[in-house]
Each structure stands twice: as C-alpha cells, then as structure tokens.
Amino acid sequence: MSEQIIILGAGPAGGAVALGLIRLGYKVIVVGQSRPFDAVEGISERVVEGLKGAGFKRALEAIREPSARNATWNGASNSANTERLINRRDLDAGIWQDLIDAGVTCINARISKVNHSDTGVEVSIKHLADGPTESVQGTFLVEARGRAAPSAGLKRFRGAETVSLLQYWQGPPATAQSAAVSFEDGWAWFAMTEQGKRYLQLTFDVATANLPPKAELGHFCTERLLQIPQAEPFMVDAKPVGEPHARTSTPILCEEAVGERWIRVGDAAMAVDPLSGNGIFQAMSSALQAPAVINTLLKSPENAEIAKQFHQSRVKALFYRFARIGRDFYRMEEQWQDRSFWQTRHHWPDDQPMHVATTFDQFEVKTMPVVQGGEIVAAEVVVTPDQPLGIWHLGGIELAPVVRAVKDRQPGESVQAAVSQLNLEPIHERAVLSWLRGLGSI
Ligand code: FAD
Fold first, then answer.
1. Of all protein residues, whose CA lies closest to atom 16 belonging to ligand 1?
2. Pocket of ligand 1 (CB under 6 A)
3. pLDDT at site 357
4. With 50 as the cut, is the pLDDT of residue 1 above it?
5. Roughly what angle, to the nearest 10 degrees, separates helices 12-23 and 45-54?
6. How far apart are CA 402 and CA 322, in angstroms?
7. Domain boundaries of the chain, sorted by first residue
8. CA distance 418 to 33
9. What is the CATH code for 4-66+83-156+251-332?
C-alpha cells in the first residue's frame, strides 16, 4: 500500500505539516473541524514569517496590520510595542483553503476515535453530531488537534493548572489595539477590532481563583474587569455579548511525542503559557520539522531512532525555553509576591537561567541528528552547555571541522593557522575567525 498520511486537526501546526508533506510528494488527508468559539490572538512579525515560510497564502489574508499594544507590568506602563491581531476563525479558514489549493484531501468532520494497528491507522469520523460514523484509513498519523488532542495514555508534564476566561463585548467602531496587564491574582489581555468587537481575557490559577459556577462566570468577569483600570478603554460604551468562553492555558509537555507510525505536533506535543504570546510560533516550530521526521520514519527506517530523538529533543527544548521565558517575565512582576498565582509561577519549571555562559573549552564535537535533504541524518555538530542540541552550520559553514582543527592544533600553533589549514573560502574564513574571536578563543 502506498503511504497515506492522516493529519488530525487543521490549525497552524496540522496545516504546516500537511503543506510540508505535499511538497515531499506524499498523499495527505486532513480531518478537522473549525474551532467552536470566536477568539482573537496577537502575533509578532516572526509568526508572519513562519506562516509565509510554511507556504501559507490565504491564511496570511487574516493577518491585520500592526496595531498599538500597551503593557502594564509591575506597575510600569509601556506603549512602545505593536502586535498584529488575528481572528482565529479567519486564520483557520485561510489555512483550510490553502490546504485545498495545495491538493490536500480535506474532510470537515469531527474525529471521534483513533485505532492503531500493525498495518496502519483507522480514524472514526462524524460529519454531523448525530450522523453515522465513517472511517478513514492511513499508514501514518499526525496528531495536531491542539490542546483538545487526547493524551492517549502518554506521559505529560504539566505546569500549574491555569484557565483563561474570554468575555466578548461589543461597542462602537474603534481603533484596533490591545493591552496586557498584571493584577493581583493573574494577568489580562484585552483587544478590540475596528468593528468594535472587544475580547477581554482574564487568566487565573485554577486552584486558588475561587471561580463561580458556569452560569455566574459572565458576572464574575465583568466585576473583575471593572477593578482593572487598563480595561476601561475597552469597556467604555460597550456591553458584554453572550457567555464567556473558558480556555485551558496550563503549560503541557507531552514526554513521548513520536512513535514509529505517529507523531504529535503543535499544542498536541507541547502547549505553552499564553503569556508568551508565542503559541502559534511554537506550534509552527514543531510542525515545520515534522515532515523530515515522518519522511525518515517511512523511507529510512534504519534512521528511525535518530529521527525520533530529533523530534522529541527539540519539542522538549522548545518547551523549557518558553517556560523559562515565561518564568522570567512572571518574576518581573514583584507587587504580589505573596499571592499564590505569582508564587507558583516565579519558580516553575525550575530556577535554571535562560542562558548558560560558555567558553570555547566547553565546546565538544558530537554526532547528533540534523535535517538534510528532507530527512533526518546523523552529522557531527558542535555541542555547548547553552546549545545542547548542537550547532551544525554557521552561515553555511560546517562548524565541527573548525572546532576540531582549533582544539587539535599543535602547541604554539595559532588559531588563525589552524583555521587556514581548512582551506575555506576567504569570506568563510573571516566569518569563522570572527565567530571564534567573539567566543574569546583568539
Ligand atoms: P489549534 O490551533 O488548536 O488547532 C487544532 C485544530 O484541531 C482546531 O481547528 C480544532 O478545531 C481541531 N480539532 C480539535 N479536536 C478535534 C476533533 N475531535 N475533531 C475535529 N477537529 C478537531 N498564540 C499566539 O501566538 N498568540 C496569542 O495571543 C495566543 N493567545 C492564546 C490565548 C489562550 C487563552 C490560549 C489557550 C492560547 C493562546 N495562543 C496564542 C496559543 C495558540 O492558540 C495555539 O498555540 C495554537 O493555535 C496551536 O496551534 P495548533 O495547530 O497546535 O492547534
């Protein structure tokens, strides 16, 4: 049977994997349903570049021009930054259209069950909630259902349980803008669009927030918002519309994100605290590497172990990186250090610094997995305490031979002389020497 890859979920992660696999010549089926709630999110230019790089076109049409972003943290306000607001339903609709345009088979249905067997995978789907169940067969499964993806019995590492309550307000047409604000029991993010719709999001610690029953959440949100002065511009002349929507925002790392015939990407592999404002970026990061991992698992099973190691180690490293960025940002808020929300988050996931200072003596040459020609292969890379996954190239120059030449040079031989024996192009030799100089090794 020729390989047929089934992707569950068509958010940014599922979409990016689908486009990558189509480029590698695979038959791809995406099964997904649009998200059941309205949400606006903020993204940086880095995400726009990531979406472009993944090959999205129609999805880009959902991205607005940058708008003002005000931040009030630790009592200080800053309005120097901007962010781009996106309506997630519009973004996801654009992704869906991009997949159709690229030749992906797209099935709009609810996934109810997944069965793995020795020969492949069977996914049970329903087009209508009360309709009949159908099934779709494939030989490889990509789990990209975001935070809604079932844990499937896999071990997961979770941060403090966190919930974000999103209340919708409607007011007169407005200048698009957003604001992030800390308060004693959490933080808030507000956005409004030109059409006057407002998205007021409050994030709390589940254990200590004393949230009321569902029917009283609307009143609870409004009361809390009225206590936050920075919410006022978003509430003036506006009224709450409908019921608030609760979103889990607990950081979660799936400690097993890949097997012989399946892989998890995006939030299904690791979901970060929305404080980072980087969820879509990290979802895309794990998704962009996945096609090469899948290609290796299917075409070069002899490299399956290094392909799995490549995916898992990067997912984990990315998770800890964003978790520590979040921790350092929480630590910058010092007004409510005795409050449970802040205490818990000031020391999670650990107290390790974001970056470890390194010297050239600590550099090692090791064989690690890298991406080459659409597959994962083993190559010699330079590993440092700050870059444990290794650095393969610097501006197109392989670094392992450089580090080895410098380390193995004869007593009395200069670094320049050792590097010159590599016969690099003059421009590359200058770049390498400048890199070594920056490390203090010359
Ligand atoms: P998703 O985008 O969640 O896509 C999964 C898809 O699978 C969805 O379309 C869903 O409908 C579908 N699906 C799920 N289950 C089923 C099923 N059973 N059957 C069929 N389809 C199914 N990120 C930012 O960059 N900026 C922000 O401002 C931001 N704010 C956030 C605020 C909150 C409160 C939260 C919780 C997250 C926020 N994020 C933000 C993170 C961002 O939403 C996610 O990281 C990103 O969408 C993950 O992409 P994904 O493709 O992995 O999953």
1. 145
2. 9-14, 32-35, 41-43, 92, 110-111, 144-146, 148, 164, 247, 249, 266-268, 274, 277-280, 283
3. 86
4. no
5. 40
6. 31
7. 4-66+83-156+251-332, 162-248, 360-438
8. 59
9. 3.50.50.60
pLDDT of 180 higher than 60: yes
- For 3, 32, 137, the CA distances from 24, given in Å and listed in that order, are 12, 22, 20
How many CB atoms lie under 10 A from the CB of residue 110? 15
* Residue whose structure tokens are 């009283």: 216
Pairing outcome for strands 262-264 and 186-192? unpaired
Residue 161 Cα to ligand 1 middle (Å): 17
Closest Cα partner for 329 from 63, 71, 107?
71
Mutate to test the pocket of ligand 1, among 34, 202, 267 (most ligand atoms within 8 A of CB): 267
Smallest CA-to-CA distance from 43 within 278, 243, 238, 264 is with 278
Q: What is the mean pLDDT of residues 239-257?
A: 97
Is the pLDDT at 358 greater than 90? The verdict is no
For 192, the token pair is: 């409004």
pLDDT tens, residue by residue, 280-321: 999 999 999 999 999 999 999 999 999 999 999 999 999 999
Q: Please give the average per-residue pLDDT across 21-50, as a whole number.
A: 95
Architecture (CATH level 2) of domain 162-248: 2-Layer Sandwich (3.30)
The pLDDT of 34-55, averaged and rounded, is: 94
